[in-house]
Amino acid sequence: MILQSINNIAELCARKGVQNVVISPGSRSAALTLAFARHGSIKTKVIPDERVAGFVGMGMAQYSGQTVALVCTSGSAAYNLAPAVVEAFFQEIPLLVLTADRPKEWIHQQDGQTIYQNELYGKHVKKSFELPADYAHPDTNWYIERVLNEAINLSQTYPKGPVHVNVPIREPFYPTANEKITYDRNVRLVERLATQPTLSPETWHRLQEEFENTSRVLIAVGQLPPQSALWKVLKEFSEEMGVPVLGDIISNIPADDAFVRHHDVCLRPKNHEQLADLQPDLLITVGDSFISKNLKLFLRKFAPARHWHIKPTEQLIDTFQTLSLQVPVEPVYFFQKLLEDIDYQQFVHQDDDSEERTQYREKWLQADRNAQRKLAQFFRQETRWNEFTLVDSLMRSLPENSVLHLANSMPVRYANLVGTSTQVEVFANRGTSGIDGCTSTAVGSAMMTDKLVFLLTGDVSFFYDRNALWHPHLPENLRIVLFNNNGGNIFRLIDGPSAQPELEQYFETRHHTSARNAAEDAGVTYFALDNNTNNHQDMMAAVLTGTVREDAFESIWKQFLVQNGKAKLLEIFTDPVMNGNVFEAYRKMS
Question: What sequence ranges are listed for the domain Thiamine pyrophosphate enzyme N-terminal TPP-binding (predicted)?
Answer without folding.
Answer: 9-114
